[in-house]
What we know:
Distance between the termini: 33 Å
Shape: flat
Oligomer: single chain
Strand order of the largest sheet: 1-2-11-5-8
Number of helices: 1
Amino acid sequence: xxxxxxxxxxxxxxxxxxxxxxxxxxxxxxxxxxxxxxxxxxxxxxxxxxxxxxxxxxxxxxxxxxxxxxxxxxxxxxxxxxxxxxxxxxxxxxxxxxxxxxxxxxxxxxxxxxxxxxxxxxxxxxxxxxxxxxxxxxxxxxxxxxxxxxxxxxxxxxxxxxxxxxxxxxxxxxxxxxxxxxxxxxxxxxxxxxxxxxxxxxxx
Length: 204
């Protein structure tokens, strides 16, 4: 089936790439590249790459299963297309969930979780996961990203199991970023997508 959505790149745009390198004592070369497929017709929808991020965690030394999460609500309706989890060498598992808040029988706040993606993570095999069927989500829908880290000696890729690990750009630091792609009307850019309607309510 032909794609009816695409990323819009305005004429004259600069494409900026951020490459992460860590010195290993040997000379090396890199030849990064990008491939573009141009649509023959104007897209009906625009793809926006969004993210859930937590950069305020501290992973204790030796922790074998440390949990970090981030949550956010959709400011407007959108169609969920794909996921791209990102961590570093201590990354162990990553998941995306929908959170539905409700009230329990005794009147206390409660919620239910609908898993969307759960994967074992490997830094050298970072993957994009595209939904077999795109998922339409209403404004106010809450999305959760959860990451687990293995900072123990059992992790063969761990640079230092005795280190207290925080957010950082070097591979021996850590990151927690849950990227995801959504499709929105072609005329909606990212700044406009984040303008919330006053009457918007949380979807339950």
